[in-house]
Amino acid sequence: MPNQKVVAGIDLGGTKTLIGLVDSTGKILITKQFPTNIHDHPKDHIEKCIKILGDCIQKISINEDSLLGIGVNVPGLADPKNGVLIHAPYSGWKNVQVKNYLQERWSEIPIRIANDVNSCALGELVFGKGKEFNQFLWVTISTGIGGGIIIDRKVYEGEHFIAGEIGHLVVEWENGNLCGCGNCGCLEAHASGTAIAKMAEMEKISPATAKNVAELAYNGNKIALDIYRQAGEYIGRAFSYAANVLNPGAIIIGGGVSLSFDLLEPHIRKTFRSAVIDESNKNIPILRTALGYEAGLIGAASLIYANE
Amino acid sequence: MPNQKVVAGIDLGGTKTLIGLVDSTGKILITKQFPTNIHDHPKDHIEKCIKILGDCIQKISINEDSLLGIGVNVPGLADPKNGVLIHAPYSGWKNVQVKNYLQERWSEIPIRIANDVNSCALGELVFGKGKEFNQFLWVTISTGIGGGIIIDRKVYEGEHFIAGEIGHLVVEWENGNLCGCGNCGCLEAHASGTAIAKMAEMEKISPATAKNVAELAYNGNKIALDIYRQAGEYIGRAFSYAANVLNPGAIIIGGGVSLSFDLLEPHIRKTFRSAVIDESNKNIPILRTALGYEAGLIGAASLIYANE
Fold this sequence. Notes:
The structure is a homodimer of 308-residue chains.
Chain A: E1 6-12, E2 16-22, E3 28-35, H1 42-59, E4 67-74, E5 77-79, E6 84-87, E7 94-96, H2 98-105, E8 111-115, H3 116-127, E9 136-141, E10 145-151, E11 154-156, H4 188-191, H5 193-202, H6 210-218, H7 222-246, E12 250-254, H8 261-273, H9 279-282, E13 286-288, H10 295-305
Parallel strand pairs in A: 1-4, 4-8, 9-12, 12-13
Antiparallel strand pairs in A: 1-2, 2-3, 5-6, 6-7, 9-10, 10-11
Helix pairs in contact in A: 1-2, 3-10, 6-7, 7-8
C-alpha cells in the first residue's frame, strides 16, 4: 500500500499500551499490544513505542512519507499544547516529554497528545455517533468514570485541563462511598465497574465482578438487577448535572460497563428526566458508542485526523 | 457630545424595562426606567422602547450616527441568531421579533438580543471581573437562579440555547422542595431569594424577605444565620457540579441575594471544596460582581461592545 496515507495511534494505558495504524476512514490496519511497565523510566517506554511503531510501518509495507502524524493518548493529565504528560496517577509518571521524545525520531510530522478520555471523545466526533452533534458529552464507564466534552466540534479542556470530571460529581451527599479522589459520594464510587464489584461482594456474589453481575442480571437475578438499577440511577443523577450545565446535543458512553447499557438505560433515563429542565434536555439522546474495544486507538488517531 | 460613540442597552425585564446609553468604558450616560406591562402587545412595548431610546439620544445631544448599536436583554429564552424572544415565561410573550421591530427604526446598525443572564455574563466579561478569565460561570441569585457560561471569551449557549441552568441542578434528592420548573430539589427551590423568604416564613420571621433575614443574620440572629448557612451549602453543591463539569477560571455571582455574599461565602466554599476534584478546582475564585444594580444594562450594551 505504497500511497495510502495513515495515522499512527498510541494508546498508552496504565497497564497496557496499544499501537496501531489507522486509515482516514477509521479502519485499523494493524495493531500491536504490549504491557506498560510502570517501573520503567517513561523515556524507555516511549523508546519501546517508537520501535514497535517502526515495526508496524514496515509490516504493512507503507512508506514513511505516508505517515500523516502520530496521536498519543495518555492515562492522566495532559498538556496538549506542549505535548507533555503532566501526571499519570496510576504509574506516578510526571512531566513526560512525550512529544519531544517522539519528535527525535519523527521530526517532520505533527505529533499530538491528549488525555485518553478526551481522545475517545474526539474519536467519537470524527468516526463515531458524535459526527451528528456540534456538542456532546463523552463518558467512559469502566473501572473508573471519566468524561470528555466536545463544544463546537472541538475538545473543551477547561481552565486547568480538567473539564468533564463526570466521575467526581457528588451523587450521594449523605453517607456517600469514599472515592479514590478523597471526597465522598462521587459517581465513580457508586457506579463504576469497581463500585459494582464492591456491591456484588457485599451481596456475596462470586466472582464479584461487574461482568458477572451483568450476566446474573440478564438471567433475571433480582439482586444483580437491583445493583444495576442503583448504578443507573446514580449515572442518571450525574448526567442531569452535565445536561443542565452544558445542554449538549447528546451523551455518548463507552467503556466496559457500557456493554451492559440496556440494564442501565431505563434507570438512567428515568432519573435524568426527573432532574433536568426543559423538554429539549429531557429528550437528549443517551447513546452507547459503536467504536468498541479499540475506541482508544481510534481516538488517538483522531487527534491527527480532526486537524486535517 | 457630538463625536462620542455610544451603545444603547435595553434591559427588558419581567416587571420593568431599563433603557440607557453606555460608553465604551462601561459608563452609563443616561438611563430611563418604566414598567413592563405584560398585558401590552409585545410590539407595543417595543414601540415604547423605541420612543424612549430616541428621547435619551436627544437628551444627551448626540448624533444618531454616534449610536454604534443596540443590545437587548430579554427575560426568557432568546434566539440570538434571529433576534427573537422565543418565550418569556413570566409575561407569556412568545416569538417576539425584537430585532425586526427595532430595525424598522434603526436599520443600519447592529442589533443583538440575548437572554438576560447570558447578557450579564458577557457584561462581566467585557467590563467586570470576568476580564481576567477566558472561561467563567456567571450566576444570578435573585428571586430565581440563573447561570451564563463564558467559554473562550464567548457566551456558550448549548445545543438548544439552554446551557447554564444552574438554578435547576438538583441539590436535594430526598424530599426536595418543589420547584417552579416542576422538578423537586432544584437549587432555585432551596437557595433563591424566594426560597430564603419561604424558610423565613416557616420560622415566623416577619417580614419574610431575603433582605430582612440578611439583616437579622448580620445582627447575629441564629435562625437567620442558619437559613443563610443552608442556602450557602446548597449553592456550594451546585457550584461543585458546574466546576467539575466546566473547570471554569472563576465563578462570579450577582443578583439581589449576592449582596449578602459574606453570609453565604464560607458555607459555599466549604461544601464546594468537599465536592470538587483537584486543587485547581478547589481554589477557583468565587467572586461577587462589582457591576451592581445596572449590571443588566451594561450586559445589554456589551452585546455590541463584545463584537466591536
